[in-house]
Write a structure and sequence with these properties.
CATH architecture of the largest domain: Alpha-Beta Complex
Order of helices and strands: EEEEEEEHEEEHH
Helix content: 10-25%
Number of strands: 10
Radius of gyration: 19 Å
CATH class of the largest domain: Alpha Beta
CATH superfamily of the largest domain: Nucleoside Triphosphate Pyrophosphohydrolase
Distance between the termini: 41 Å
Strand content: 35-45%
Largest sheet: 7 strands, mixed
Structural class: alpha+beta
Shape: globular
Number of domains: 2
Number of helices: 3
Length: 206
């Protein structure tokens, strides 16, 4: 089957909910075989996230509580685009300074990824920021977070062991490690690291 034969055609859209961060829509689509089907779509402006790496290869992460999964997470500094047309690089610079107070003299685009294409339009641009200088942190009024600094190699090991689970953070750290020409996963001599059992992952509270 050719790629063009897989495409669905959008026939109609209906907004069910419009919030500050997302819009939820019901779409009717025509399937490749001519039948019609419904799709529940979450529209999102997109976001940017930053691997902020200092001269000692220390990475700055953000620790915060994510109520949707009732878990305190370690994540890259990140934030949503103010509008669908905003340059993700401008968003990355703004969010890095707002959340950490850091500014970067050098930037590298790592990737531009879709997060959950089965139902959401969100795309996240990932950047590596180096040559850091300290400015002033100015978080949003509803943001409560800690800054955690650690060696990049240690953060990568936390990805491999399942201690860091946020997808954008996992990918950003691994890509940053690769951009430095280092192995994706680093193992300590005499120690074996295994992913945690499924039962050890937290569940959302319903």
């Amino acid at each position: 089957m050719q790629e063009r034969d897989l495409r669905e055609k959008v026939l109609s859209r209906q907004t069910e909910f419009e919030g500050r961060v997302i819009t939820v829509e019901q779409w009717k689509v025509a399937l490749p075989d001519g039948r019609e089907a419904g799709r529940e779509i979450v529209r999102h402006n997109g976001a940017a996230a930053v691997v902020a790496l200092d001269s000692r290869h220390q990475v700055t992460l953000v620790q915060q509580h994510r109520v949707a999964i009732d878990q305190v997470t370690l994540e890259l500094p990140a934030g949503k685009l103010d509008s669908p047309g905003e340059d993700p690089f401008e968003c990355a610079r703004r969010e890095l300074e707002e959340e950490t107070g850091l500014r970067a003299g050098k930037w590298l685009k790592l990737a531009h990824v879709v997060t959950t294409p089965g139902f959401c339009t969100e795309r996240i641009a990932l950047y590596l920021a180096t040559e850091l200088t300290q400015a002033t942190q100015h978080t949003d009024p509803d943001e409560f977070l800690n800054l955690v600094k650690m060696p990049l190699a240690e953060a990568v090991m936390m990805v491999e062991s399942g201690q860091i689970q946020d997808a954008k953070t996992c990918l950003g750290l691994l890509l940053a490690q690769r951009s430095l020409g280092q192995p994706a996963f680093l193992f300590q001599e005499g120690k074996t690291s295994h992913p945690p059992a499924w039962d050890s992952y937290p569940r959302a509270q319903c």
